[in-house]
Amino acid sequence: MTELILGQVLSYAGDPFAAGLSAARVLTQGAVAIDGSHITAVGEAGDLRARYPQARIHDHGAKLISAGFIDAHVHYPQTAIIASWGKRLIDWLNSYTFPEEMRFSDPAYAAEIANRYLDLVLARGTTTVSTYATIHPASVDAIFTAAQTRGMRLFAGKTCMDRNAPEGLRDTARSAYDDSKALLEKWHGRDRLSYVITPRFSPTSTPEQLQALGALWREYPDCLMQTHLSEQTDEIAWVKDLFPQSRDYLDTYEAQGLLREGAVYGHAIHLTDRERARLIETGASLVHCPTSNTFIGSGLFDMTLANSLRVGLATDTGGGSNFSMLHTMAAAYEVAQLRGQSLHPAQLWWLATQGSARALHCEDRIGNLVTGLEADLVVIDLASTPAIEQATRRAEDLWQELFPTIMMGDDRAVAEVWVGGKRLPG
Ligand code: GUN
Ligand code: ZN
């Protein structure tokens, strides 16, 4: 049975950073046709109604129909410690993150948080995430199982750390390789799931561990590799002490085979000229985590990088202070303003959908509303609260109508979510 979803349909014919705003396509009375798990047509409502006379109609009036949000960098195990007060990166990790991640030695706790986390993000219109698990293999099983049950496309990997982490949260170079490989063999490519090789960051991995994971990546070149890069200045100074041989932070990864297309670096705020040039040359991806970068006090990402690199958008739960990609777009807007860069709503929305899909190399499957892609959709109420509604009354186009929802919207704006062609109950 064809499902026909009617509303204002937003899709992209290109990258609005490179191609300008004409890359965004708005059908004011549009429709998306879904057959099974995929999008089979996108067009004018009248045309698609005529083409699919038997279709089941879901008429959303003036609501916005968009691809589901893609959160390109999260730590699902930090769900319960989101919005913990105070401290900068390294003591935040030691005070809140590591004690919480320790609890994931209990598979039942891992399963509870994995399910809780996915329900929280789906309610906010996020249909795909790329998540770090903990060092415990069962924490990877927990999140993949929870995603599989919900039919979600999801990226995840076992976080590897063999130094500068407490007893109980350390593996070794050997066990990180063996456990990652076993999990990869078990999950990668199963249903909509992808395994991601995941060294946490250079301070918590010995060069031997990074090298072992570089070797694993060479064995499975179609996997992604995710880690952190140049988030805080103290962290960068620490990396310099730990890796005296390295030219810079990025070099600690490059030296071990962890820099190429398919590498996904979170934060990447304080980059040297050499690092920027190397990232561009190699075609690596960056992920902007604006609520985290303000919350932990890390710094202001340079959005001009989106002109020459794959850049995605992310909450960085729980260093980020909010599960919502709407809130994250608002923070990205504000951070850009502080750098004298004004992001258009079409660019913000693109970052949260196709931009993140490109950063995760899955833009041929998700992140846009075009024929042939998987049917992960979100329906957005553009007047979800009285405060937002009154701010939209004089809007002259979709962007003016949408911007108050970007700046002030939350889960109340999410009217409906579709995952793999199925509407979530709700
Ligand atoms: N760097 C290494 N680990 C983490 C983490 O869990 N959160 C953030 N924000 N930065 C990190
Ligand atoms: Zn992170």
Brief summary:
The chain is an alpha/beta fold. It is 38% helix and 23% strand.
Walk me through what this model shows.
The protein is of the alpha/beta class and 426 residues long. Helix content is 38%, strand content 23%. It has two domains: 3-68 and 368-423, Roll (Urease, subunit C, domain 1), CATH 2.30.40; 69-359, Metal-dependent hydrolases (TIM Barrel, Alpha-Beta Barrel), CATH 3.20.20.140. It has helices spanning 16-19, 45-51, 89-102, 107-122, 137-150, 173-187, 207-219, 233-242, 249-254, 273-282, 290-295, 325-338, 345-359, 386-392, 398-408, and strands spanning 3-12, 24-35, 38-44, 56-67, 69-75, 126-132, 154-157, 159-160, 193-199, 224-229, 263-267, 285-288, 310-313, 377-380, 414-419, 422-423. Strands 5, 6, 7, 8, 9, 10, 11, 12 and 13 form a nine-stranded parallel sheet that branches. Helix 11 links the parallel strand 12 (285-288) and strand 13 (310-313). Guanine binds next to helix 3.
As a percent range, the share of strand residues is: 15-25%
Number of strands: 16
Oligomer: single chain
Shape field: globular
Largest sheet: 9 strands, parallel
Q: Supply Rg.
A: 21 Å
